[in-house]
Amino acid sequence: MRAEERSQAAEPPDDTGAARRRRARPRDDRRAAWLFLIPALAGFVIFYGYPTVRGLWYSLTDYNLLSEPAFVGGENYAQLVRDPQFWHSLGVTVYYVVVNIGSQLLLGLLLAALMHRLTRSVALRAMLLLPWLVPNVTVALLWVWLLDADLGFVNHLLKALGFGTVGFLVSPDWALPTIGLVNTWAYTGYTALLLYAGMLQIPPHLYESAALDGAGELRMFRSVTLPMLRPVLALVLVVSLIGSFQIFDTVAVAAGGRGASSAIRVIYYFIYQHAFQYFHMGYASAAALMLALVLGVLTVVQLRLLRASSSDLA
Amino acid sequence: MRRMPTLGRLPAWAVLIGALVLTIFPFYWMVRTALTPAADLYADSGSLFPSNPTLVNFQRILGLTSQEEARAAGGSGARIDFARYLLNSVVYSGLIATLQTFFCAMAGYAFARLRFPGRELVFGIVIAALMVPPIFTLLPNFVLVKNLDWVNTFAGMVAPSILMTPFAVFFLRQFFLSIPRDVEEAARLDGNGAWGVFWRIVLPMSRGPLITIGLTTTVWAWKDYLWPLLVGREEETRVLTVALGVFLQQSPNTRPDWTGLMAGSTLSVLPVLILLIFLGRRLVQSLNFSGIR
């Protein structure tokens, strides 16, 4: 944009046909621009802007989807902070996020580093990407079946190895970490590929000079790869966090549609239940706004990181 | 680049191959279960190959067998027609991916290259919408669609997604900014208006980023669950993900219809597998930071 303004200012004020046409452009542009923007702006106003305002309004009302919303002021929020279920759901979500992000980033980093050093195979990358392409519903079904207490393959293995069977998704202690690890399975390949792409940007001569200094593999990873990867790592971390906080489908399917047990009732499920099972739209909106505050902060960080790395985009 | 010492490469390869096996095995187990007769499920819960491979599970979830045959093969007898759900999923994700990409390209171009008063401000407001998480707009959007009487229609299912997402606008604008200005100038002098430049010059030059956004949007829509669950519950609009959830609920809690469920799951993987085989390189390259979950 800067460059564009400058080039316009530098244009010689002669009166050839081309220059006239060029000077005639801005007014033309103005009309064309708004025509170009009609669909997107309509979508923005109807499905982003207006609902945001509506959501704020609902959060201040008592609304059951049938009668008109009745204004109750801050009542929903007051109730929310006193609601142990809400805090429990938040706690469950944070626990899930920690398990999921921790394992996903560590494994992703390991895989990326191995790919970076060993092979550039596209086939390998494609296979690692497969779980990410598959709906979370399918992912959940696959693992509910693999982890089934009676017939599941994993428990079959455990039995064969002389261990007892574990009710991975039914036991209150196991269910949450299990779901965290199931989604680690689903997203680690994706994370690894993002990190791998970041590693490809690191100038090879850094490794060459490190090798001349006699650095081993581990040392190179610690002194070259990790520091150079920090911006990409930060972005991947923030993006994964935002996604992780919004886990819903896996939990919904693992619960088999019979209502998630409190051990796995993450915040999205809490909001979903209040909105569409108990029809407390106002209460659900208030809870959604609380979640929005957390995610909003993360998104601001993400946007900053994106702008910083936007030259690498596309 | 310096190569790893040979000895160190062995364990490194072992870890990589281990990860690959762990990635692929669940899919193998899914297909293997789908090919197993329901009656044999207990008998060989641990064998690596199906004892009496059969296609009956696929036939019954595609609605190709009679109710009695389906029940005999281990089904609950509930009517299921995954062929239809598969088609619904294709329509749902196809509509969203093509229209959203196109409209976002138009908007991205206007924000990148057309001068109009308030451009920066409007763009800033659009980008600010990235900060509003989907769940927050989902509740009022559901109310809106319900009030429009669009529940269980394709219009209601795709309306919130076909016109724009802030991320796609942001991403495409970023690319359009990098197109050399001279190319456009030349096209202008040839008598093209803004639309001509966009349609004849900018779009063909941006095939890569457009496919990137189109592909990721397809994947996102293919995986989508919550919105279609709320808006497209009925047969006519039910997509695969929702159908799988409903199928799970319908099968008895104590003995789920695993062979049928795995046949349905296989159907939900097949199209993305085809996508991966034909567009693998493009897809791997087009990973972006959109944060799809």
TrEMBL record, chain A:
Cellular localization per UniProt: Cell membrane
Pfam families with a match to the protein in the record: BPD_transp_1 (PF00528)
Chief site of localization: membrane
GO biological process: transmembrane transport
GO cellular component: plasma membrane
TM ranges: 32-50, 94-114, 126-146, 174-197, 228-248, 278-301
Disordered as annotated region, ranges: 1-24
Domain called ABC transmembrane type-1: residue spans: 90-302
Membrane topology: Multi-pass membrane protein
Keywords: Cell membrane, Membrane, Transmembrane, Transmembrane helix, Transport
InterPro entries (alphabetical): ABC_transporter_permease (IPR051393), MetI-like (IPR000515), MetI-like_sf (IPR035906)
Family designation: Belongs to the binding-protein-dependent transport system permease family.
Protein name (Swiss-Prot/TrEMBL): N-Acetyl-D-glucosamine ABC transport system, permease protein 1
Organism: Nonomuraea gerenzanensis
Organism ancestry: Bacteria, Bacillati, Actinomycetota, Actinomycetes, Streptosporangiales
From TrEMBL, chain B:
GO biological process, one term: transmembrane transport
Membrane topology: Multi-pass membrane protein
Localisation: Cell membrane
Name of the protein in question: N-Acetyl-D-glucosamine ABC transport system, permease protein 2
UniProt family annotation: Belongs to the binding-protein-dependent transport system permease family.
Keywords: Cell membrane, Membrane, Transmembrane, Transmembrane helix, Transport
Annotated ranges, domain ABC transmembrane type-1: 86-279
Stored Pfam families: BPD_transp_1
Main localization of the protein described in the UniProt heading: membrane
Originating organism: Nonomuraea gerenzanensis
GO cellular component: plasma membrane
